[in-house]
Design a protein that fits this description.
- Two copies of one chain form a homodimer.
- In chain A, 71% of the residues lie in helices and 0% in strands.
- With 210 residues, chain A is mainly alpha-helical.
- Chain A folds into two domains: 3-58, Arc Repressor Mutant, subunit A (Orthogonal Bundle), CATH 1.10.10; 64-198, Tetracycline Repressor, domain 2 (Orthogonal Bundle).
- In chain A, helix 1 packs across helix 4 (46-63) and helix 4 (46-63) runs parallel beside helix 8.
- The two termini of chain A are 26 Å apart.
- Chains A and B meet through helix 7, helix 8, helix 9 and helix 10 of A and helix 7, helix 8, helix 9 and helix 10 of B.
- Chain B binds a DNA duplex (18 and 18 nucleotides) through helix 3.
Chain lengths: 210, 210
Amino acid sequence: MRTDERITRAMGELLRRQGYAATGINALARAAEAPTGSLYHHFRGGKREIAAVALRQTGAVHIQLLPLLLDPYEDLAEGIEAAFAQAGDDMRGTGWPNMCPVGSVTAEIADVEPELREVSAEVMRDWIDKGTAYFTARGLTPPAAAEFTHAVLAALEGAFVMARGLRTEAPFHAAGRTLAAHVRTLAREEGAGVREEDAAVRAEGAVAGS
Amino acid sequence: MRTDERITRAMGELLRRQGYAATGINALARAAEAPTGSLYHHFRGGKREIAAVALRQTGAVHIQLLPLLLDPYEDLAEGIEAAFAQAGDDMRGTGWPNMCPVGSVTAEIADVEPELREVSAEVMRDWIDKGTAYFTARGLTPPAAAEFTHAVLAALEGAFVMARGLRTEAPFHAAGRTLAAHVRTLAREEGAGVREEDAAVRAEGAVAGS
DNA sequence: GTCTATAAAGGGATAGAC
DNA sequence: GTCTATCCCTTTATAGAC
């Protein structure tokens, strides 16, 4: 693996476990098996620039899970519930780390590191765009899809935090079931967010290509 | 105000803006207008103990908002939607700080500070107990109330994070509307979480006393 | 490009005068 | 109980040999 890849990957891993402030350049160099000077050779912006790249990387990786997890389910509500359940299982199985550092790092640095906050905002806007496109392709009207995407992302980030503290999957199950119920409501109420003609149409690859 | 109160309050404020690792003892002493030695006189456990007390304090304060915000609404779904909307307005009005440090600090230190993680877990369990009691008093069956409480807390914590990054109230509105829709679903489906006999009964002071 | 050594600053914590 | 001075360690970042 290239040196700069090792560095940004190690940063991503440390960010999700310790956050930004607690992750020192020396610890990062050790984790990436690269000397201190090498970090500044590849990233002249130092710690902040490395964190920015790591956030963009992990953000892009994690949004890909959306179609991967939901495509197999013909019933969107069922898929949502299953996806949240699996996220909870994954956390328990890996010892309750955070699954994606974007949320926790954003909470930590939003008021103190304006450049990194803007990076987080870009990543989140990308999530929202891709999510809205996906749920629109799954039959929701664009406004309903946008709102649902916001709700899914908020519930997911919050479930990470709650589960990380409580060490229970309960937040994931509760969030998944609530969101699934909402999707079923949308499907039942005509004109309340579902386009009749393609409500049952699968959205194979709707987001994968973007 | 007593010195130890000034210290824990200042810690709470710094925690929600910068997180745990970035909050230094010296900065804390400055913010609390107390000399360094005074901190260790009142809290022999140092930074960690001060943070623990601050987390418990802010956690206890914030759960009191639940009945305060929801009691005025006879329709629970309407109340949920309004409460989330107000949380979003508050964040915008105050410049997008975190409203409660428990979530963000938990995300930051869960893997690194076991004692503080346990404190966060205690605070969160207290939230869940009080929330379950409240929503039960508002007409949900105990299991539905527990699940709904988990979903509300996860959505709230996640909305904080998303709004902090995006600087938009959209996550609050989306989360509030989704949860409100779910409550309405529960109210419509007989036996699906609402006890018929007291579904409309107000829960004045159900949590206030505990 | 890789790596070492070090500078300059700040961290948490403590001892002890007052 | 209040406050100061200081210890020791780690931090980010750089300079310069290889």
